[in-house]
Every structure is written in C-alpha cells, then in structure tokens.
Write a structure and sequence with these properties.
This protein has helices at about 5-70, 75-95, 100-125, 130-215, 235-280, 290-320, 335-350, 370-390, 445-455, 490-499; strands at about 330, 355-360, 365-370, 395-400, 405-410, 460-465, 470-475. It is α+β, with helices and mostly antiparallel strands and about 500 residues long. It binds adenosine-5'-triphosphate (ATP) and magnesium ion (MG).
C-alpha cells in the first residue's frame, strides 16, 4: 500500500470513527424530540382540555341556577351553549383515550340536556315545583357525577404524563451513555489508527535516517531493518539507499585498490632510483663532482621520502582494503617494550636525547594484540617524539595498567604542538607548523595510521601538548582484542583525510 493510500485510508477511518458518536447523539436527540412532541400534542393538550372541561361544567351549573332565577330565553340559550361546549370538550378529551371517564362525562352531559329543556318549560309556565324537582333530582346529580368522573381522568392523565416524562428521561440518560461510550470507542480507534499511521511512517523514516548517518560515517554495509521489498515509497527509497551504498562501497574499494596499486607500482621505480643513486654516490659510474655531491644527496633524501610515502600509502590502503582487519596474537608486553627500547636506544644516543622505558606493570604478561600493527603505532609515536625533541631533551615510554586494560604513554620534552592545531594531528596528511628541518621527512600520515590501528584494537589514542614544554600521547587498550573487521569510521577517515 503506498504512503499516500495509507494516509488517506487512515484519515478516512479517523474521520469515520469520529462521526459515529455524532450520529449516535443525533439519533438520541431525535428520539428525545419525538418524545417531547408527543408530550406536547397529547398529555399537555389533554390536561388543557381537562381544565377547560372543569370550567365548562362549572359554567353549566351556574347557568342552570340562573335559568330558575332570571327566567329568560337568553339564559336558557346560554345554558344550551354551555352544555354543547362542555359536551364537545368531553368528546375531545375522550379522543385522547386517557380514561373511559371522559366518555362517561359526555354521556352525563347528554343526559342533562332534556332535563334542562324541561326545567326551562316548567319555569316559563310557573311550575316552580317541577322545575326545582328537575334541578335537584336530575340535573344536579348528573353534574356532580360528571365532576366526579373528572378526578380519575385527571389521575390517569398525570400517570400517563409521568410515564412519558420518565421514558424521555430514560432515553436521555441512555443517549448520554451511548454517546460517551461511542466517543470513547471512537477516540480509542482513532488513537490506534493514528499510532499505526505514525509507526508505519516514522519507523522507516528513522531507519533511513540512521542508515544515511551510518553511510555518512563510512559504514557502507549498513542494512535497513525494514522490508526493503515493500511496494510503497519507503520500499523505493530503500532500494535507492541499497543501490547508493553498493555504489559507494564499490567506489571505496576502487579507490583503495587504486591507491594500493599506485603506491605499489611507485615503490619499484623509486627503489631503482635509490639503487642507482647509491651506486653513483659510491663512485661506480665515476667520481661525482663537488657540485653533484649535494645534489645527489638531496635527490636521495627526496627519493627516500617518496619511498616512505609510497610505503605508508600502501600500508593504509592494505589496511583499509582488508576492512581494517587486525590479527591479534598473544604477545608478552615486556618483549615488545624491550624491542622498542633496543631499536630507539641507538637513535637516542645519536640525537643526544635521554630515552627511558618505564614498566609500571607487574602485569607485563601476555596481551592479545596485533603485534606488528602495535609496533607500528608505538614506533610512529617514538619517531615523532625523537623528531621533535632537540638534543638534551628527553623521551619516555611508559606502560602501565588502566582499568581492565593497558595504558601506553609516549612523552617528550620537545617542540610541542600549538593548541589550535592539536585537534587536527590525527588527520591524514596534516602537519602542524612546528616543523623544522625534520619536516622534509614527514608526510603527515603516521598519527592517522596509528589512530586507525588503535581503534581497530577497540582502544583510544589522545594527545596533550604545550608549545616549548613537550607532548604526551596516550593510548588505552584492552588487554584482549578480538579479531574483527572495521568498516565504518575507518573508511570515512580515509575519505576525509584524502580529500
Ligand atoms: P609521518 O609520520 O607520516 O612521516 P609526520 O610525523 O609529520 O609524518 P604524523 O606523525 O602524523 O606526521 O604527525 C602529524 C604532525 O603532528 C606532525 O607533522 C607534527 O607537526 C605533529 N606532531 C606529532 N608528534 C609530535 C610530537 N611528539 N611533538 C611535536 N609535534 C608532533
Ligand atoms: Mg610521524
């Protein structure tokens, strides 16, 4: 599923689940509305009619009394109208079906009508006894009966109203609960969808970002931890990433191969030049003139520098082509120190520099390092120390314990390195501006190689220096180093240094 489809789908699902509580709430409101409408059109109307019916019956009673007193046609007609109105109200009330009492009130009122006509006739003819008898024995009891019927109707109406209100209240509570529940469910679903969306996007983005950083650090074998065959944009990005890493790795390999071959090919002609130079200096081709001697010496110095550079480049490229591989072997630290002492003793005497080797280790037992490589490192540091320390100065090599490992320190009382340049001394081809005549011999690769070898041993190297006081290099190494292939910073260092 493409990223766009997934986003669209996620948004649709979120929108849908958020609409559900709205629909539920809307339906509940509709039910409530119909309950209220029913209440207004039935119970409310019925109670209005009930009130009017009560008034109408009272009106009938008043006008019936008036017929006996006033004795006019108008009063009789008004009584008839009052009866008709009350009858109509009773009929209306009966239609609401609240209680059968409403129907009976209608019957009672219907029964009064002939009696009132007869009463009016008796009053008109002066038969007051007859009129009184009709009023008391027929009309008054019928009216009372009608009024009595009002009470159960009213009770039934109140009960029905209460039931309807209760029903509406129940509906409201239910709607409230249902809306809250559906809102909670909708929020949970929306959160899940949002989580799924962000996870499915953020994870590959994070992976790609880490991959890019790893490649930038030179770790070209870095693999992405998500399915690179997926059919979305991330799948395509991953394919490009893999292709990019592959091409970079190929370029890196080509570069290392090129440097390796070039430096190797350089060595042969340089050695030939040095050989012939030596023969010329030895007078094999006839004696050199006075003018030619210093020229031949300069050519020799430069050719040696070139040979050394070619050798170092070859060393670097081989080390890198092998992925910075080291081959740890068990060696006695004491043997290594003895050898170094022997090698540099001669140089110290030649230069008039005091050279001391301090063995702070009762521990001078075996360590598991790559002896050739570590010799190269300490040799480089000591060469530098002697190179930058004038006669009368001192160079000290100290080996001591450090936590679980070993600390090797090379200290000299030489020229020192300016603080601003100190951070760069481990970069390839970097030389501080503390060079004197010795500078002609250096290429600025020694410390860079040393750093790579130390790091391949899972150790660290650092430098402290003060101009005019001296320089101290510190190496911290574990005692036991497992053989491993370094691919990351090692390549990056080469690329950075060479550029
Ligand atoms: P190379 O070792 O490749 O022949 P180099 O000695 O100039 O050449 P590095 O060993 O890498 O190169 O050292 C880099 C620079 O650091 C040196 O050129 C020098 O300026 C400075 N440096 C290194 N060691 C010392 C030291 N002990 N005292 C003063 N400066 C030093
Ligand atoms: Mg050096």
């Amino acid at each position: 599923m493409t990223l766009r489809t997934r986003l669209a789908l996620g948004l649709v699902v979120i929108a849908f689940v958020l609409i559900v509580p709205l629909i539920v709430a809307h339906r509940s409101m509709q039910r409530l509305h119909s309950d209220i409408t029913a209440l207004r059109e039935n119970e409310f109307q019925a109670s209005l009619i009930l009130g009017r019916l009560r008034d109408a019956i009272a009106d009938v009673r008043a006008r019936e009394v008036a017929v006996a007193v006033v004795k006019t046609d108008t009063v009789h007609v008004e009584l008839q109208h009052a009866l008709v109105r009350a009858g109509a109200l009773a009929d209306s009330l009966a239609r609401f079906g609240v209680d059968s009492g409403a129907y009976r009130i209608g019957l009672d009122l219907d029964a009064i009508k002939p009696a009132t006509d007869a009463e009016y006739l008796a009053v008109s003819t002066g038969e007051m006894d007859v009129a009184d008898s009709l009023s008391q024995n027929t009309i008054a009891p019928a009216l009372k009966a009608a009024e009595r019927e009002l009470a159960p109707v009213e009770r039934a109406l109140r009960a029905r109203t209460e039931a309807r209100v209760l029903h509406a209240e129940d509906g409201l509570t239910q709607a409230e609960q249902l809306s809250l529940l559906s809102l909670a469910v909708a929020l949970a679903v929306a959160a899940l969808v949002a989580f799924w969306l962000t996870r499915s996007i953020s994870r590959p983005v994070r992976e790609l970002e880490q991959g890019m950083r790893a490649v930038a650090d030179g770790e070209l074998q870095h693999t992405l931890h998500y399915d690179v065959n997926r059919r979305d944009e991330f799948g395509r990005l991953a394919t490009s990433f893999v292709e990019m890493s592959r091409q970079l790795a190929e370029l890196d390999k080509l570069k290392a191969e090129f440097v390796s071959i070039a430096s190797h090919e350089l060595k042969t002609p340089i050695n030939v030049i040095l050989g012939y130079l030596q023969l010329m200096q030895d007078g094999v081709y006839g004696p050199l003139t006075e003018q030619q001697v210093p020229i031949a010496r300069t050519i020799q110095t430069q050719a040696r520098t070139l040979a050394r550079l070619a050798g170092q480049l070859l060393d670097v490229s081989r080390f890198e082509a092998g992925g910075g591989r080291i081959e740890p072997r068990a060696i006695r630290l004491s043997t290594m120190l003895d050898e170094l002492e022997g090698t540099f003793h001669v140089l110290a005497v030649q230069r008039g520099v005091e050279f001391r080797v301090i063995r702070r280790i009762a521990l001078l037992e075996e360590v598991l390092w790559d002896p050739e490589r570590m010799n190269e490192v300490t040799g480089n540091l000591l060469s530098n120390a002697f190179k930058f320390t004038p006669a009368g100065g001192s160079v000290t090599l100290t080996a001591g314990p450090h936590e679980d490992g070993v600390c090797i320190e090379v200290r000299d009382s030489g020229a020192g390195i300016p603080a601003a340049q100190l951070p760069h001394v481990f970069e390839k081809f970097y030389q501080a501006n503390n060079q004197k005549s010795a500078s002609a011999k250096g290429t600025g690769l020694g410390l860079a190689i040393a750093k790579e070898i130390v790091e391949a041993h899972q150790g660290s190297i650092s430098c402290e220096s003060e101009v005019g006081v001296g320089t101290t290099f510190n190496i911290l190494l574990p005692r036991v180093v497992r053989e491993r292939r370094r691919t990351g910073p090692h390549h990056a260092a080469f690329a950075g240094g060479a550029s």
